Amino acid sequence: MLTIFDKRTPSRNGLTRRRFLTAGSLGVAGLTLADLLRAETAAGAGSSCKAVINVHLDGGPPQMDMIDLKPRAPVEVRGEFSPIQTSIPDFQLCEHLPKLASIADRFVWIRSLVNSAGRHDAFQCMSGFDFKNLQSMGGRPAMGSVVSKLRGSPDDAAPPFVDLMQGRALVRNSARPGFLGPAYKPFRPDISHLFERPLEPGMVKELAALGDEHRVKLTLDAGLSMSRLDDRTRLLAAHDSLRRDVDASGMMDAMDRFTQQAVAILTSGRFAEALTLAREDPRVLERYTPAADDPRQRFETADAPTAARKFLLARRLVEAGVRVVTLSISDFDTHSENFPRLRQALPTVDHGLHALIVDLEERGMLDDVTIVAWGEFGRTPRIDPASKGGRHHWPRVGPAFLAGGGLRTGQVIGATDRLAGEVTARPVSYQDVMATLYRNLGIDASATTIVDPTGRPQYLLDQGTPLHEAL
Hints:
alpha/beta
């Protein structure tokens, strides 16, 4: 069976097969080089190795049980967890985040995230926008899709945007290209064989309705030789060219571009190898592997402790050339049994994020890779005794934390009232965080536009500004 190539194989004229298959295809890449250079210059950064790892805490993480504990609040607010001191003076974290507490000075902690759309998916964490924004023309694109448009090329050995999210974020297609169209959708490999995340019954039906194209296959079909693959690509391009003259939307060019990039990635082997954790140094793999829990006591939709390895997978993808990686950790949807659920979820986040930060730092990559962890909203200050100690949706304020990217870390931004329910200082919006991420990629979101299907230029963000404290 022909599978993904592990190495580039030169053709007789010296070109790699990947370059041979994509030769002559660069003309449909999007912005011109001059546009790209202007965008990088305006942002004051132009490194080609900048990347973002966007961690979605699936379900809505409770701010007061993680990074904004209120030990003097009434018992029905403060809950069961105790605060522990961190490496930042006078700043405390939850007792179930001891590893992050030890490196708290590597983070920017945001306790005042506001303007949540209150929607149960990850789209706002991926784009900064409510799903209704420009919905009539397909909606806003996720950041990774924007980066694919601005920085991607069919000649890339790795896709600019890879979505590893599972659970709700996968089912609801949170990392979507919006009005940019299918050429800029993420590469979404099926990682269910590596990380089990059982879906709720309703979500099983939702996912099935999306069809097979919701994920990207990373192997070539049996019996498909390189010459046949090349012939099929040429034939597809020739056939599509017959229709392109009458395609005013430009969709045919977009689909050609995605096909060319898919072939390039499949035949290079570099991207597929990054997704193979078995190739990682066993000592590094062990670093990302926390102690096992008792699966008999795990909530059905919670990630297993081995989900901490998703952070290793993200690091490997960034090393392979991916610009934006999204991943998710479940399950923070704590309408019932808030504290038992968090006793499972928080240690996974704690272990995985700590391992990632230390690993990137040791490899000299931390200043080039920005990490953000957040969710779609926070949780109610008061615990609901009628739902077995659950906390419900609370869009008024939520938590977020960033690391890497050359940020000025070791600080806490924002504050809430004594119940952790209302912001009292320095509100930070989702778009402010997104503007910071774009800036760290060398993109000025306030000065860069992409053209929507009507031909109108749209700014990447319409309100957000980078966090001046962290720059």
